[in-house]
Amino acid sequence: MSDEELISVDYEIFGRVQGVFFRKYTQAQGKKLGLVGWVQNTDAGTVQGQLQGPRGKVKEMQEWLKSSGSPKSQITKAEFKKEETVGSLEHSSFNIVK
Question: What is the pLDDT along the chain (98 residues), one digit of tens a residue?
Fold first, then answer.
């Protein structure tokens, strides 16, 4: 990883994001960018999770979550909360939480 500061951010994605492989694509994109964290479905029909990694890569992932997602998803809103600088990564990989 670069010397870029590490950040952590929580997210929740709204729209047609369950039953369309959104979690699988999110995990794959996160790993591709070298990020760690997790993703899971919620009872409210949204997808939520946490991203951690270099600021630039986290920002890139946030844009992907807002505009791309999985091929059959329809994203209506993306919320990002609790963005903070972290001294070290709290996760070892990018996981789908059941």
Answer: 457 899 999 999 999 999 999 999 999 999 999 999 999 999 999 999 999 999 999 999 999 999 999 999 999 999 999 999 999 999 999 999 99
The CA-CA-CA angle for residues 77, 60, 9, to 5°, reads: 65
Which helix (H) or strand (E) is 23 found in, with range?
A: helix 22-32
Confirm whether 55 is a catalytic residue.
no
Check 16, 41, 55, 95 and give the catalytic one: 41
95 is catalytic: no
Q: What is the pTM of this model?
A: 0.94
